[in-house]
Write a structure and sequence with these properties.
binds arginine; two-stranded parallel sheet; 6 strands; two-stranded antiparallel ribbon; mainly alpha; 5% strand
């Protein structure tokens, strides 16, 4: 049981209490950040003449030795230590001797862990942004190729008006683009260095906090030492943004599951991203999409959990905050895997375009356009709506659709119908006449694609 604080104690820690308190089992993944923070801290201590250059050099050499040894597998992280900070310090002293005991001058594990977690989270915010960017490239490629791939658009999961696959994917492009903007916002707000806050009230040593912050690429130091050691807002923001990413992935997954069903048959998921059944030989199941949808719950859970953990904690540091790690790591790993797999699934998914167009044709998706046609012939919209409603009822009873009716049948409901009605309610016209910016018509879509390409820096 290696711990850094034995002096004040006479008795031994209860074994179960020690294990309950220890965090090395999960904070070992902060190993590199812990070393990076110590390197910056020690470099600053020497600049401020709190350590000599010789002391600095041996500590830095020791730290880089530990880092290399662990990375090369020559040194295992000792999980009997209380936490990753204790492990690194204990190893340092073992490597370089008593001078290693000077590393923690002017520092507390409270500002140390606040720093480690920020350094780690900062990387994962960038990583998430990169994965979202990869996904946007795949979505945009599908959009460019499917400007004329017609499909039904739905409201209430009832066929509403025809759209295109490019347009439908374009909706997700916007969602994931906003997710990236959230990553950028979070990064900017969190990028301040808490090191130097000490346990809660700063230190009596003349630390140069601006300098340590700049060594680690922070925009500057945080400005209140109590806040620095007890702020987990940035994690809550990140978990919230990750929850939103998952909400988007889950909705998209749900649609893919529907499109992949026997009833729809709009898409075929590649074998690489499907699984079979142990009993039903015919089955090819969309398990990856289902798991992405399913794992959304645990990411939301992490957000709720941390919000609740934080809500009753008095200033400043309290051990409750150690609970920020496991759930955040789990959420970050989950979103990482979901983004990678979802992007792969999307990249390899095939579309059954004829099936999609056939589905867009039936279900009266051209009813609004039939009404608009009558409006064009001088019928007030409300009357046109009523006429086409009766037309649809007639078709439902006859088991047919608007464009299949004869001109006589159409004219029985309104003498405004003429030969050009067939052109007006064709699938192509229904889509192509929708040219407001953001609508599915080809010229409107091309403008949006050009903007999206500029956003992704594509020629
Ligand atoms: N493992 C602790 C955490 O994650 C590190 C900080 C410990 N500080 C303390 N005063 N015991 O929050």
């Amino acid at each position: 049981m290696a711990q850094l604080w034995g002096g004040r104690f006479v008795g031994e820690t209860d074994k179960m209490a020690y294990d309950f308190n220890a965090s090395i089992g999960f904070d070992k993944r902060l190993f590199e950040e812990d070393i990076e923070g110590s390197i910056a801290h020690v470099t600053m201590l020497a600049k401020q003449n709190i350590l000599t250059e010789a002391e600095r050099d041996s500590i830095l050499q020791g730290l880089s030795g530990i880092k290399n040894d662990v990375k090369a597998g020559r040194l295992a992280i000792d999980e009997t230590c209380e936490d990753i900070h204790s492990f690194v310090e204990t190893e340092l002293i073992r490597h370089v001797g008593d001078v290693g005991k000077k590393m923690h001058t002017g520092r507390s594990r409270n500002d140390q862990v606040a720093l480690d977690m920020r350094l780690y989270t900062r990387k994962r915010v960038q990583e998430t942004d990169g994965l979202l960017r990869d996904l946007l490239f795949v979505i945009l490629a599908v959009m460019e190729e499917n400007l004329e791939t017609y499909m039904p658009g739905f409201t209430h999961l009832q066929k509403a008006q025809p759209v295109t696959l490019a347009h439908h994917y374009g909706a997700y492009f916007e969602m994931f683009k906003r997710d990236r903007q959230r990553m950028a916002d979070i990064y900017e707000r969190m990028n301040y260095c808490p090191l130097g806050a000490g346990a809660l009230a700063g230190t009596t040593y003349p630390l140069d906090r601006e300098y340590t912050a700049s060594l680690m690429g922070f925009a500057g130091p945080t400005l209140n030492s109590m806040d620095s050691v007890s702020d987990r807002d940035y994690l809550i923001e990140f978990l919230s943004a990750l929850s939103t990413v998952m909400m988007h992935l889950s909705r998209f997954s749900e649609e893919i599951i529907i499109w992949n069903s026997n009833e729809y048959k709009f898409v075929e998921i590649d074998d690489a991203y499907s699984t079979g059944s142990s009993i039903m030989p015919q089955k090819k199941n969309p398990d990856i999409a289902e798991l992405v949808r399913g794992k959304t719950g645990r990411v939301y859970g992490a957000l709720m959990s941390l919000l609740i953990t934080m809500k009753g904690i008095p200033l400043a540091y309290n051990k409750d905050m150690q609970e920020d790690k496991e759930l955040s790591f789990d959420a970050m790993d989950t979103v990482h895997d979901c983004l990678v797999l979802f992007t792969g699934m999307l990249r390899t998914m095939r579309f059954k375009k004829e099936q999609m167009a056939a589905s867009a044709m039936n279900g009266f998706t051209n009813a609004t356009d039939a009404a608009d046609y009558l409006v064009g012939k001088g019928v007030p919209f409300r009357d046109a709506h009523g006429i086409v409603g009766r037309l649809v009822l007639y078709c439902v009873e006859k088991g047919t659709s608007i464009e299949k009716l004869s001109l006589e049948e159409l004219q029985a409901l309104s003498d405004k119908f003429e030969e050009d009605i067939y052109e007006a309610v064709s699938l192509k016209t229904c889509v192509e006449k929708r040219l407001t910016l953001g609508a599915p018509g080809m010229e409107a879509m091309k403008q949006v694609i050009a903007k999206n390409k500029a956003y992704l820096d594509i020629e």
